[in-house]
């Protein structure tokens, strides 16, 4: 008897059956743009082997003007058909099913040729869109239909027509972007026409036995978006036009409400999809922040949807479904929704991967195979670098001993998990604990090792991490000065007025921790919705609360300081930095930049500004918290070198600058693959 009966139940679509209720949602990985079709095929085949019922590819453009950016993958030629056949063949051999997403980006297309219903520029693109005339609209529809026909020819089991997230079709649906007064604008009947025509003509062109998923924006989260009645009306029309499945889209890309970040509660928007259940007779998929089989099962068993869409969790673990089937849910590598190696890469023009699983999108290049010669491996430091090395080395058949002077594994992850909004880190540490035990790794905690303890091993790996940088501020040894470790690890008492020195990732984290009191909104959906001003779209158009965000009062008065003059938080994640900045702004944090730290005394923190040390100012505060970066902890590596013992130094012990778990895990995994 499975613990996930709803998630693992088949879904009969009439002409074909899906083997379970898990869809791999579309992700723009950048793989298709490598044109290395073997590599693309292996990425999808790996997930097909992992048991997912149906996958959707990254967004493929139906034409140049609709592609996300110049050079993005399109489906327009016979050559495209031949290339995509490599993917579909490999997926079918692996027992999977795959649909190609057709993504017409409209005014979100990053280029001067972008088109839209009306000349309304997007706030997230520098390119003013070219409004379409009647012929132009007909051409876009014809190109989308043509891409569907070519996808069918390439062997895809279906297509997903992207109608949400503020892309082209979504832009016609709402008056926010559609200012037309012809048959494509004005009344809702007219604004729906494009979506319906695309689906109707696609169905006509591909025949009956081909999956058409329509991704429908169920809550736009922008001004003048759709009402719930309009969403229902559209869903019913899309069903009549011939769609097989409706998928959920949440929020436009320009919305200033987080929808998938780690601080968003798990399954935060399943209730939105549930409102559509029973109003259409085709299956409905829900999505966003569903990252464990337990959450998926809960969502399905409470009637929120017929299927769940998991995207990033399929990067973290290709075997998500098979592990659930085997009753090994605890072994599923968790997606912590950090965006660090997936969306931040995509928006930085880099190939997607995964912080937790560096093999994602690198399946053909980073291979963890059985070692020809098995070795004894000592690893010192059970943070992300040491843990990932230990796991990959053990998978390869090496005998691994992992040492740490702390009483628990996890290193700095144990501090991250204390921060409200970063609760997913608990699951990540739990997963490492499960895997370390499962792989038979010998763990020696509470043990400070020296060079003499490390003799007799074939390989010695130093992953001793970092120590806080000393900012050398006069008065920093006073009782009212703490380090981030005192605050996050030792829970030292902190006063009501706080100056935080250093506005890197840890300065932001510490500020969020200190501003917070009571339930974490990430674990309390109504509270989170209130904080961000999200409401039922049946009550207020687009799901925006008329009163706006209502954050709870800050628990402390925080001043966040840095020496740089640039905007605070510039170095934070591309897709998540704005959320951290917005959270702190909502809690009235003072951002002070361009400072020199003069001294700390009873009054507080004395600063001045600029090279001439002008405008001496006192930041009156009860506590100063030092978050001034980190330096490598290399003492053991140095001692080994003196003794002439060869070792590998990884993670923060190797390079502390801009260290993050992504770099540490990637470096550790790659080292283990080479041992
Ligand atoms: P960091 O990002 O390097 O930031 C260090 C901060 O300290 C900077 O604001 C820097 O700004 C300041 N600083 C540097 N030297 C100083 C000195 N001598 N005296 C006073 N201030 C000094 O380091 P971190 O905040 O410790 O974070 C470590 C790593 O963890 C980062 O790479 C980050 O990516 C990762 N992390 C990320 C997140 C996130 O994205 N949410 C959260 C936690 C950790 P000035 O030089 O301008 O003063
Ligand atoms: Fe999830 Fe982070 Fe991996 Fe992206 S990088 S898939 S958000 S764990």
Structure description:
With 675 residues, the protein is α/β, with parallel strands linked by helices. It folds into three domains: 11-333, Aldolase class I (TIM Barrel, Alpha-Beta Barrel); 376-468 and 633-674, Rossmann fold (3-Layer(aba) Sandwich); 481-517 and 552-628, 3-Layer(bba) Sandwich (FAD/NAD(P)-binding domain), CATH 3.50.50. A hairpin with a 4-residue loop joins strand 23 and strand 24. The protein is globular, with a radius of gyration of 26 Å. The model has no long low-confidence stretch (mean pLDDT 96). NADP nicotinamide-adenine-dinucleotide phosphate is lined by residues 469, 471, 501-509, 562-564, 571-573, 580, 627-630, 658-660.
What are the SSEs and their pairings?
Layout (H helix, E strand, L loop, with lengths): L10 E2 L4 E2 L3 E3 L6 H4 L2 H13 L4 E7 L17 H16 L4 E5 L12 E2 L13 E2 L2 H20 L4 E6 L4 H6 L14 H19 L4 E9 L8 H14 L3 E6 L19 H5 L9 E3 L6 H9 L5 E4 L1 H5 L3 H6 L17 H5 L28 E5 L3 H12 L3 E5 L9 H4 L7 H15 L3 E3 L14 E4 L3 E3 L12 E3 H5 L8 E5 L3 H11 L9 H8 L24 E5 L15 H10 L3 E3 L2 E6 L3 E6 L4 E7 L2 E4 L3 E3 L2 H9 L4 E2 L11 H14 L1
Parallel strand pairs: 3-4, 3-12, 4-5, 5-8, 6-7, 8-9, 9-10, 10-11, 11-12, 13-14, 13-16, 14-15, 16-27, 18-25, 19-20, 19-25, 20-21
Antiparallel strand pairs: 1-2, 17-26, 22-23, 23-24
């Amino acid at each position: 008897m499975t613990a996930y009966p709803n998630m693992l139940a088949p879904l009969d679509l009439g002409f074909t059956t899906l083997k379970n209720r898990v869809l791999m949602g579309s992700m723009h990985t950048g793989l298709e743009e490598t044109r290395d079709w073997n590599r693309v095929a292996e990425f999808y085949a790996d997930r097909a082997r992992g048991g997912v019922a149906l996958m959707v590819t990254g967004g493929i453009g139906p034409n140049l003007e609709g592609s996300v950016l110049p050079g993005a993958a399109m489906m327009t030629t016979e050559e495209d058909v031949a290339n995509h056949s490599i993917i579909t063949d490999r997926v079918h051999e692996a027992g999977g099913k795959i649909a190609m997403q057709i993504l017409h980006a409209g005014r979100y297309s990053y280029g001067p040729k972008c088109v839209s219903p009306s000349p309304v520029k997007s706030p997230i693109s520098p390119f003013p869109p070219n409004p379409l005339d009647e012929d132009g609209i007909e051409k876009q529809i014809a190109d989308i239909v043509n891409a569907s026909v070519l996808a069918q020819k390439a062997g895809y089991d279906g297509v997903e027509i992207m109608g949400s997230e503020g892309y082209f079709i979504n832009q016609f649906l709402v008056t926010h972007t559609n200012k037309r007064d012809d048959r494509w604008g004005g009344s809702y009947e007219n604004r729906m026409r494009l979506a319906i025509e695309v689906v109707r003509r696609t169905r006509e062109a591909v025949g009956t036995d081909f999956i058409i998923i329509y991704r429908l924006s169920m809550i736009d989260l922008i001004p003048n978006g759709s009402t719930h009645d309009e969403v229902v009306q559209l869903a019913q029309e899309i069903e009549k036009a011939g769609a097989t499945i409706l998928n959920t889209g949440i929020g436009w890309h320009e919305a200033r409400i987080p929808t998938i970040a780690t601080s968003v509660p798990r399954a935060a928007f399943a209730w939105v999809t549930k409102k559509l259940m029973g109003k259409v007779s085709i299956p409905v998929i829900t999505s966003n922040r569903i990252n464990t089989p337990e959450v998926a099962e809960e969502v399905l068993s409470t009637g929120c949807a017929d299927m769940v869409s998991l995207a990033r969790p399929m990067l973290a673990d290709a075997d998500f479904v098979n592990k659930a089937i085997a009753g090994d849910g605890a072994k599923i590598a968790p997606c912590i929704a950090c965006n660090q190696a997936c969306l931040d890469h995509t928006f930085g023009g880099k190939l997607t991967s995964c912080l937790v699983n560096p093999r994602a999108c690198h399946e053909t290049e980073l291979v963890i195979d059985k070692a020809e010669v098995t070795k004894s491996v000592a690893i010192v430091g059970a943070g992300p670098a040491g843990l990932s090395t230990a796991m990959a080395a053990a998978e390869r058949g090496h005998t691994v001993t992992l040492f740490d002077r702390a009483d628990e594994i996890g290193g700095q992850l144990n501090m991250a998990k204390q921060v409200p909004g970063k609760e997913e880190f608990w699951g990540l540490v739990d997963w490492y604990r499960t895997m370390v035990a499962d792989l038979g790794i010998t763990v020696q905690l509470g043990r400070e090792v020296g060079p003499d303890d490390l003799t007799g091993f074939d390989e010695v790996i130093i992953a001793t991490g970092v120590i806080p940088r000393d900012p050398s501020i006069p008065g920093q040894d006073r009782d009212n000065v703490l380090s981030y470790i005192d605050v996050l690890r030792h829970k030292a008492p902190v006063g009501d007025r706080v100056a935080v020195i250093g506005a890197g990732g840890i300065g932001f984290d510490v500020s969020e921790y200190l501003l917070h009191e009571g339930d974490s909104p990430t674990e309390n959906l109504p509270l989170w919705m209130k904080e961000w001003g999200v409401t039922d779209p049946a009550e207020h158009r687009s799901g925006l609360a008329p009163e706006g965000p209502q954050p709870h009062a800050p628990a402390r008065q925080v001043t966040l300081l840095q020496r740089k003059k640039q905007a605070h938080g510039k170095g934070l994640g591309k897709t998540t930095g704005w959320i951290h900045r917005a959270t702190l702004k909502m809690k009235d944090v003072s951002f002070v930049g361009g400072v020199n730290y003069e001294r700390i005394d009873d009054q507080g923190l004395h600063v001045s500004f600029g090279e001439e040390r002008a405008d001496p100012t006192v930041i009156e505060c009860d506590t100063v918290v030092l978050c001034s970066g980190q330096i490598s902890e290399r003492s053991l590596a140095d001692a080994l070198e003196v003794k002439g013992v060869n070792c590998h130094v990884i993670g923060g012990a190797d390079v502390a600058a801009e260290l993050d778990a992504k770099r540490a895990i990637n470096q550790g995994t790659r080292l283990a693959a080479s041992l």
